[in-house]
Amino acid sequence: MAQMAEQAEVNRRIYAVATGLLIFMAALFLVARYFAEIHPAMGFVQAFAEAAMVGGLADWFAVTALFRHPLRLPIPHTAIIPHNKDRIGDALANFLRNNFLTPAVVARRMRGFDLAGAAGRFLVQPNAGMEGRLRQGASRLAADMLEAMDQQRLGGMLKGMLVQRLSALNLAPLLGQALEAAMREGRHEPLIDGALRWASRTLDAQADTIRAMVHERAGSILRWTGLDETLSNAILDGLMKLLVEMQDDRAHPVRLRAFAALEKLSWRLQHEPEMQAKIERIRDEIIANPAMQRWIDGLWEQAREAMLRAARDPQAVLAGRFGEIVKQLGSGLNEDAELRRVVNRFARRGVVGLTANYGDKIVSLVSETVHGWDARTVTDRLEHTVGRDLQYIRINGTLVGGLVGLAIHTADVLLH
Predict the structure, then answer these.
(1) Is-contact 69 81, C-beta < 8 A?
(2) pLDDT category of residue 52 using cuts at 50, 70 and 90
(3) What pLDDT score was predicted for residue 53?
(4) Are 89 and 370 in contact (CB under 8 A)?
(5) Using the 8-state DSSP alphabet, how is residue 289 labeled?
(6) pTM listed for this prediction
(7) CA distance 318 to 314
(8) What is the average per-residue pLDDT within 278-306?
């Protein structure tokens, strides 16, 4: 806003200079004409001032006619830009489309652009010269954009995308394949050993509870003879022995049956529709669980805070192990010509693809934006942009006109 106000002030000053110069030439013409009989040189001054007025007035009329009616008179072919703003917008859009946003033009421009090399140099020396300032500016811009976004709406959108992805995930075959791969490589054995150790500890911790259960369910005769305690101890000893034997003997029949049950579960997860449907129901119940929803919400908040920290302090992001990895990537791009060629080709194809897919939409955006402006907005924006140069045209027209008039008058004097 401050820059626009400063530019407007510059335009006003140069307008005053151009208008003041025209007024000065009119005054000079009157003075020279008044004193024309005093000295022959006054004829040269009068010719210069007269031609300068003509040139200045002609250029003033031409410049003014671009934006409005001179002296508010409805002269034909004046106020050209306000009357033709829609045609100008269409012409500008077509110019962009035909000269900048065609796949052939973009591909030709991108062919000589070493994006991978520039990225490699930036990653190796991110603080060097202009690149350091550029990175700092980009970091501030990224932080401002993140803070300015509607966090509730953006978070809801990302949450919806994540939930949609999770809901579309066919989880059962993945679990079955993972279980099958784990069993094939023997990674299920530690899992079974851990389960057996947990069962042993639980059985030992709950021994008194088991004895109490046997005592309650035993008949009065067993309780009177004390056989209920003998029975509970036998049950505990038998279960503990079974668990120990299963841990020590990997070929134990019960352990092998557990292995067979896991194999069957793996097959059912991959091939049985009923099991897959059951897993899908469990997946959907987990996703719909409020605790899961809160966890997903937390993911976005954590990601946003991490991005803000990175944007506010890019130096910290490039420190430590991550910074070393980034520098190694940059060195690889600088030293590996084949890698640079592949990256550049990928970038070129991506940009060309974007141009082919969205070039027409960009052109339509330009055209529709100009159509949506009123005549005053178009006039003000163009005058703000090129007003200074147009006033220099007036100044140059005044001076050049004066010199032409002076040359004509000199030739006339010499010829007579």
Answers:
(1) no
(2) very high
(3) 93
(4) yes
(5) S
(6) 0.42
(7) 7
(8) 80
Alpha-carbon span 75 to 109, nearest angstrom? 45
- How far apart CA 159 and CA 300 sit, in angstroms, is 7
Tell me if 380 sits within 8 A of 34, measured CB to CB.
Answer: no
Assign 293 to helix, strand or coil: helix
- DSSP assignment, residue 72? G
Amino acid at residue number 96? L
Task: Give 29's contacts (C-beta < 8 A, 6+ positions apart).
Answer: 46, 49, 50, 53
Would you call 339 exposed, middle or buried from its count of C-beta atoms within 10 A (0-12, 13-18, 19+)?
A: middle
Extract the tokens encoding 140. 């501030």
Contact call for residues 403 and 64 (beta carbons, < 8 A): no
d(CA 141, CA 163): 30
Map tokens 């335009």 to a residue: 11
Average pLDDT (42-62) is 90
Please write the tens of the pLDDT for every residue from 212-255. Answer: 776 666 555 555 555 556 666 677 777 778 778 877 787 878 77
Q: Alpha-carbon distance 251 to 372, whole Å? A: 81
Name the maximum alpha-carbon separation found in the chain.
Answer: 157
Rounded to the nearest 10 degrees, the angle between the axes of helix 253-271 and helix 227-248 is 70
Amino acid at 341: R
> Could you identify the residue written with the tokens 């027209």?
397
Token pair for residue 200? 């042993």
